[in-house]
Amino acid sequence: MTPNLTNLLNNNTRLFFISPHLDDAILSAGGLIYDLKDNNKIKIITVFTKGDKFFVDRKMEDKKVCQYLGVNYLHLGFKDALWRKTYNSIKNIFSKKINSTKEEAELEKIIIKKLKKIIKNTKNTIIFAPLSIGNHIDHRIINKICRENFTNVIYWEDYPYNLKLNLSEELVKKNSLTKFEFSKNLLVKDKLIKFYKSQITSLFGDKPIILKKEKYYFSESN
């Protein structure tokens, strides 16, 4: 059975945060990660970390924030959707179906194999993954992979997509999901987000970072 998030504290649990991109785990779960880092073994695994030379800076930013937190990290090196030939426009990234080409279907298999090699033993292990609010294809792929291949999965609301989009209550009821809200460490989270200097403008423009409590969903039947 999936443990309640409040029981993770002081539990020495292995926590894997499966992040689609080089900021998603911190953006959506930075407050909780900060709270759990001293008493649990945390590893942030970022899947899509390859594109153009711009990604060199992005990976360095992610490395620095993980070192600041004192958590382990791993960059898997798969191409971001914008650099995969299946998606030739921003619109396609948010509208195309998962595995719409043979290349994408094969990519999913390779990612699954890679993650299963890393997460060999699921005893005392909890996996965090995106709920895929916002419908970004990379977020949807990671959600599907974690949902279909692992147990003890807890889903985070994708920030900052959740500033404008609400989670469907029908989805929560249909899947019998339990919600957990976490409102601590928001000022710390603001500092963590600012490690990603190359992303701040594209994420928030010239406006200040809007902080909100983090929301998580899980099935108690796992």
Describe it.
This protein has 222 residues and is of the alpha/beta class. 39% of the residues lie in helices and 21% in strands. The chain contains 8 helices and 7 strands, in the order E-H-E-H-E-H-H-E-H-E-H-E-H-H-E. The longest helix has 17 residues. The protein is globular.
| Fraction of residues in helix | 25-40%
Number of strands: 7
User: What is the tally of helical segments?
Assistant: 8
Q: Please report the distance between the alpha carbons of the first and last residues.
A: 5 Å
What best-fitting shape do the alpha-carbon axes yield? globular
- Amount of beta strand: 15-25%
- Provide the gyration radius in Å: 16 Å
Instruction: Give the strand order, joined by hyphens, for the main sheet.
Output: 3-2-1-4-5-7-6
| SSE series | EHEHEHHEHEHEHHE
Average of pLDDT: 90
Let me know the largest β-sheet.
7 strands, mixed
Q: Which structural class matches the secondary elements?
A: alpha/beta
Flag low-confidence runs. Answer: none
Task: Label this structure with key terms.
seven-stranded mixed beta sheet, 222 residues, single chain, 8 helices, alpha/beta
Summarize the structure.
This protein is of the alpha/beta class and 222 residues long. It is 39% helix and 21% strand. It has a seven-stranded mixed sheet with strand order 3-2-1-4-5-7-6, sandwiched between helices.
